[in-house]
Amino acid sequence: MGKKKGNKAAASSDDFLQTLEDFTSKENWDKFFTLRGNDDSFEWYAEWPQLRDSLLPLLQDSSSSSSSSSGSLQILVPGCGNSRLSEHLYDAGFRDITNVDFSKVVISDMLRRNIRTRPELRWRVMDITKMQLADESFDMVLDKGALDALMEPEVGTKLGNQYLSEAKRVLKPGGKFICLTLAESHVIALLFSRFRFGWKMNVHSIAQKRSNLKTFMVVAEKENSVLLHEITSAFDLLSLGRNDSQGSGMREALESENQIRRDCNNGSDLLYSHEDLKLGIKGDLTELTGGRRIKFTLGGQGSNFSYRAVLLDAQKQTEPFVYHCGVFLVPKTRAHEWLFSSEEGQWQVVESSQAARLIMVFLDSSHSGATMEDIQNDLSPMVTQLAPRNDDEEARIPYMMASDGIKKRDTVHEVTSSLTGKVVVEDVVYESACSNLEDLSPSSDLAFRRLVFKRTEGLIQSEALLVEDGEILEQSQKEKTKNVSQSKRKGNKKQNQEPSRPLMRVSHDYLASSYHTGIISGFTLVSSYLKKAESCGTMVKTVVIGLGAGLLPMFLHGCLPFFSIEAVELDPVMLNVGKDYFGFTHNHRLKVHIADGIKFIRDITNPEASSEETSNGGSNGYSTAHNTQGGTCPDILIIDVDSADSSGGLTCPASDFIEETFLLSVKRALPQHGLFVVNLVSRSQSVKDMVVSRMKKVFDHLFGLQLEEEDDVNVVLFGLCSESVISESDIPESAVILEELLKCQRLETKQSIIDATKKLKCWK
Question: Which of 140, 381, 382, 618 to pair with 106, CA 20 to 30 A apart?
Answer without folding.
Answer: 140
